[in-house]
Amino acid sequence: EKILNNANPRMVEDFRIQYGKNETFTNFVQWILDMSQVNCRTNFECGLDTHWIPYHFNCGFCDTSYTVVGRLENFEEDFRFIQQISGIKLEKTEETIKTKVNQNKGESKESLAK
């Protein structure tokens, strides 16, 4: 019920129409998922309250056509591959970036770019 106290009143009304007084967290999550299927056509067109839109509608992961998805576990290999397919020799070498990553574990990517 605490969740509903902070939600958009119109949204709460719609939820209660469907679930009555059975205001469980499970029912609320199910209702959000059901409503997102009805009201959200794309990541940019979703008729739900912005605070309750399922995360995958905000991230845009599926809207981008990726050429490469790199993994930290294969960083060196992925780094070389990206240089190869892009035809660009990046200024920072693998060794420089690897050293920075190891030195700055847990720091932001901005600090790694320095």
Task: Please describe what this structure looks like.
The chain has 114 residues and is mainly α. Helix content is 54%, strand content 0%. The protein has 7 helices and no strands. The chain has helices at 2-5, 9-19, 25-39, 56-59, 75-86, 94-103, 109-113. The protein is elongated, with a radius of gyration of 22 Å.
Lay out the secondary structure.
Layout: H1 2-5, H2 9-19, H3 25-39, H4 56-59, H5 75-86, H6 94-103, H7 109-113
Could you provide a short overview of the structure?
This protein has helices at residues 2-5, 9-19, 25-39, 56-59, 75-86, 94-103, 109-113. With 114 residues, the chain is mainly α.
Question: What descriptors fit this protein?
Answer:
single chain, 114 residues, mainly alpha, elongated
How much is the average pLDDT? 75
Which percent bin holds the helix content?
A: 40-55%
Q: How many strands?
A: 0
SSE order, one letter for each helix or strand: HHHHHHH
**Overall 3D shape:** elongated
Point out poorly predicted stretches: none
How many helical elements? 7
Structural class: mainly alpha
> Rg to the nearest angstrom?
22 Å
End-to-end Cα distance: 47 Å
Please outline the major beta sheet. none
